[in-house]
Design goal:
It catalyses: tRNA(Phe) + L-phenylalanine + ATP = L-phenylalanyl-tRNA(Phe) + AMP + diphosphate + H(+). About 40% of the residues lie in helices and about 20% in strands. With about 350 residues, it is α+β, with helices and mostly antiparallel strands.
């Protein structure tokens, strides 16, 4: 049995020496040291040996196993290093090759317009507020002086999810929610940009989804002249220092008095053209003093507090600012369209 053990050792060491892959080395290990391996088979026959021979043969068998295992481990390290070198050689990068140009993206035109408006109003002390797009009927209508039987609800074709849940038709609910949070005992100065939804037929000037920015300022002694001054600054910032504004009487259920704001046409400078329909003015947004009833429902005393609110559409502002004649261009993701106006903003797309 001693001779058989030494013979297995010599044969196995030769195979290990000539192995050229890790798979081949693993096969040798299983063939010799596995449960059905040649060395294991010899050791099973030790029960037939005498008591004197067993320890001697056992010691030799252990040395043979240790020798084979050590050689397999050493060879495995060599082969693994070889595999790694081959892999590194295949994956070598030529750092002298010229780089591939990568074009940087940039913000969408509407995003840029919204950020410009946010920066302007933050500079005037306004906070940015957000609210849910799936809104309750109460905050979307009733808290804004639009009870369930109010005819002005027909002005806004609404996507209802249930009798009480809907896709908000404007961002004004954020104003109502914010005033409720303040519980009528502190000033509110905020704008709330976001998406709104109405059941409308998509065409060049209408969309079932568009963006809106509402503004609200409630405090003691807030006047219409404050509203006019802020809107004048907004118009000059967005459309140029030579823009003039005018306020026309209008109606909104949540403001009283209510106004529409026009800006002087930048195409004809107020002289009249096809863009302004020969009027010299272009309607840009709606505004007004917060209705006392809206203040009361939010917990504010209208004898103490007053305020103004306004609402504008970044889509319309972008169309007027850059001469875009189809609102659907904003939502079709045509990179050719987006790129030209990103360049106008001074970016790369």
């Amino acid at each position: 049995m001693k001779d058989e053990l030494y013979a297995i050792q010599e044969e196995t060491l030769n195979k290990i020496k000539n192995a050229y892959s890790l798979n081949e080395l693993q096969d040798i290990k299983v063939e010799v040291l596995g449960k059905k391996g040649s060395l294991t088979g010899v050791l099973r026959g030790m029960g037939k040996l005498s008591k004197e021979e067993r320890p001697v043969v056992g010691e030799i068998a252990n040395k043979v196993r240790e020798t084979i295992s050590a050689q397999i481990e050493t060879k495995s390290d060599v082969l693994e290093e070889k595999v790694l070198e081959e892999q590194l050689e295949k994956e070598t990068l030529d750092v002298t090759l010229p780089g591939r140009p990568v074009q940087a993206g940039g913000p969408h035109l509407l995003t840029s317009i919204i950020e410009d408006i946010e920066d302007l109003f933050i500079g005037m002390g306004f906070e940015i507020k957000e609210g849910p797009e799936v809104e309750t009927d109460y905050y979307n209508f009733e808290a804004l002086n639009l009870p369930k039987d109010h005819p002005a609800r027909d002005m806004q074709d609404t996507f209802y999810l249930t009798n009480e849940l809907l896709l908000r038709t404007h961002t004004s609910p954020v104003q109502a929610r914010t005033m409720n949070q303040y519980e009528g005992n502190q000033p509110v100065k905020m704008i709330c940009p976001g998406k709104v939804y109405r059941r409308d037929t998509d065409d060049a000037t209408h969309s079932h989804q568009f963006t809106q920015i509402e503004g609200l300022y409630v405090d003691k002694n807030v006047r219409m002249s404050d509203l006019k001054g802020i809107l004048d600054r907004f118009a000059k910032k967005m459309f140029g220092q030579d823009r003039e504004i005018r306020l026309r009487p209008s109606f909104f259920p949540f403001t009283e008095p209510s106004v529409e704001m026009d800006i002087s046409c930048k195409v004809c400078n107020g002289e009249g053209c096809s863009v302004c329909k020969q009027s010299g003015w272009i309607e840009i947004l709606g505004a007004g003093m917060v209705h006392p009833r809206v203040l009361e429902m939010a917990g504010y005393d209208p004898e103490v507090y007053s305020g103004f609110a306004f609402g504008m559409g970044p889509d319309r502002i972008a169309m007027l600012k850059y001469g875009i004649d189809d609102i659907r261009q904003f939502y079709t993701n045509d990179v050719r369209f987006l790129r030209q106006y990103h360049h106008a903003k001074g970016g790369i797309l």
